[in-house]
Design brief:
globular; mainly alpha; 0% strand; single chain; 7 helices; 83% helix
Length: 205
């Protein structure tokens, strides 16, 4: 989404001898990611304020972001699509948090099921960024630690009566488990398609 802007900034720094050719790609990627994060943060604040759920939106993303970055899951083909999907999901979650009255029992059941799915599936890699064995182990451990920590926060919040926090964590886990399932299905379909194409190629040869 910000590829051209990041490219211009990095090229300018290189022309001014602020960075060398070896640092170019790292800086370019950093600028692109940084601009994306800033846009997402501003969008979340605007959506949250518009819906009257500002602190809920900030809390949700604070809980969601570290889990998403380590657990992986479904990724859209372009950064623009990813941004649009994120906005739609954020709006849906905030509206659900605002208008749905969910009992403690349902909240606990939903969290437990989602937690099991996250532990079982994470990390789900993207086809364009496959993970090696060590990365899979590291990301899995991180995702499980974050999930365990947020589960503890969920039950503490539920026990002391801060339902909005427990609801936020429940929705984070539900959304994350759905993204992981979607990512796994996408990867399975891509692998199946690749196998079919490889078989056809061998038959032709």
């Amino acid at each position: 989404m910000f590829a051209r802007t990041a490219e211009k900034i990095t090229r300018k720094l290189q022309e001014n001898n602020k960075i060398n050719s070896e640092q170019y790609e790292i800086c370019r990627f950093g600028f692109q990611q940084g601009l994306t994060i800033i846009l997402n943060a501003i969008t979340i604040i605007v959506i949250g304020a518009f819906l009257g759920e500002l602190w809920q939106a900030i809390l949700f993303m604070a809980l969601y972001a570290p889990l998403r970055s380590n657990a992986g899951g479904y990724h859209a083909r372009t950064a623009t699509r990813c941004y649009l999907y994120s906005i739609l999901l954020m709006i849906a979650v905030l509206l659900a948090m605002k208008y749905l009255d969910i009992s403690k029992f349902i909240c606990i059941i939903a969290l437990v099921i989602s937690c099991v799915l996250i532990f079982a599936l994470a990390p789900v890699e993207d086809v364009n960024k496959p993970l090696d064995y060590i990365e899979q182990v590291v990301y899995k451990r991180r995702a499980q630690m974050i999930t365990a920590l947020e589960t503890i926060i969920f039950f503490v919040a539920l026990f002391i009566g801060v339902k909005q926090i427990s609801l936020s964590i429940m929705w984070v886990f539900l959304m994350m488990s759905g993204i992981l399932l979607a990512g796994k299905c996408k990867n399975d379909l891509n692998r199946k398609s690749d196998n079919v194409h490889e078989t056809e190629r061998k038959n032709v040869l």
